[in-house]
Design brief:
61% helix; 109 residues; mainly alpha; single chain
Length: 109
């Protein structure tokens, strides 16, 4: 699964460059959610020692990030998710955020 994660991250990077998410000369994309700040706030709230050892298995992290990405939705009702146009809108609206989420929560950290 770690190799799958690496391949997905490579594909995400390729897609960022090829499909116009990044303009010429740009190396970052701005999103309305600051994931690093959310992680920092959680560390502060739960008193997590960032220099301490973690008992998390990297494969568990990869699986949970996949599960989280599969649950990201812009529609509330399952009925709307069956429509092909809605599925495409769903995919288009969440693709960039999922890329950012996978890169931020990658098991390398």
């Amino acid at each position: 699964t770690l190799e799958d994660e690496f391949r997905q991250l490579e594909l995400d990077r390729k897609n960022l460059r090829e499909f116009g998410f990044l303009g010429p000369g740009e190396n970052s994309v701005y999103l309305p959610v600051n994931l690093k700040r959310l992680i920092w706030n959680a560390r502060e709230r739960f008193k997590v020692d960032i220099f301490g050892k973690s008992d998390l298995n990297p494969e568990h992290i990869v699986q949970e990030v996949k599960n989280l990405c599969s649950r990201i939705r812009i529609f509330n009702t399952p009925k709307q998710l069956n429509d092909p146009i809605s599925l495409e809108v769903q995919d288009n609206a969440t693709t960039l955020f999922k890329m950012h989420l996978r890169a931020t929560l990658a098991s390398k950290k």
